[in-house]
Design a protein that fits this description.
The protein is α/β, with parallel strands linked by helices and about 180 residues long. About 20% of the residues lie in helices and about 35% in strands. Its cofactor is Mg(2+).
């Protein structure tokens, strides 16, 4: 797998430093509120598991499985494959995302959670790739901005492969074009 990566974008140490920084911010902002962290499957699972280790306040976790990608491109159509198992009404919700690109998936999820009357709603993402943004997304907790390129590893995949890399790297274009 390592031979398929042209460049490491974030090392394991970089990722842990981001998770720690964001976890400390969330701890301060959500003290006494017991937020529900909603992980968007499958890509966010590694980031979410590290992030919650650095959040020092009571919290709950839940997951949604949403899809809008076909290969390496967003289809623009968001499908909910698994919905939340917890009611969000009157609760403080923090959506945990691995990467924000077009904004289509998050906009759909934000609309849905707002419709369900959450007390508050914020977004935390490990990676922000604004170069591909089509819809505005308010992100309160952003790990780091990355340049254009198809990234894999640490939960991010190409056709379900590469999720288990402990770092995030640029996939060689000849492997997905």
């Amino acid at each position: 797998m390592k031979n398929d990566i042209s460049e490491v974008v974030l090392s394991e140490a970089d990722i842990q430093a981001i998770a720690k920084r964001l976890g400390e911010q969330i701890t301060e902002d959500y003290e006494g509120k017991t937020p529900i962290l909603v992980g968007l499957l499958k890509g966010s699972i590694m980031f979410m598991s590290d992030l919650i280790k650095y959040i020092d306040t009571h919290l709950e976790i839940d997951f949604m499985d949403v899809s809008s990608y076909v290969g390496t491109k967003s289809s623009g159509e968001v499908k909910i494959l698994k919905d939340l198992s917890t009611s969000v009404e009157g609760r403080h919700i923090l959506i945990v995302e691995d990467i924000i690109e077009t904004g289509a998936t998050l906009n759909s999820i934000v609309d849905l959670i707002e419709y369900r009357n959450a007390a508050s709603l914020e977004i935390v993402t490990l990676l922000d790739k604004p170069v591909n943004r089509k819809l505005h997304v308010d992100v309160k907790y952003a790990g780091t901005e990355i340049p254009d390129g198809f990234v894999v590893g640490y939960g991010l995949d190409f056709d379900e492969k590469y999720r288990n890399l402990p770092y995030i790297g640029l996939l060689k274009p000849e492997l997905y074009q």
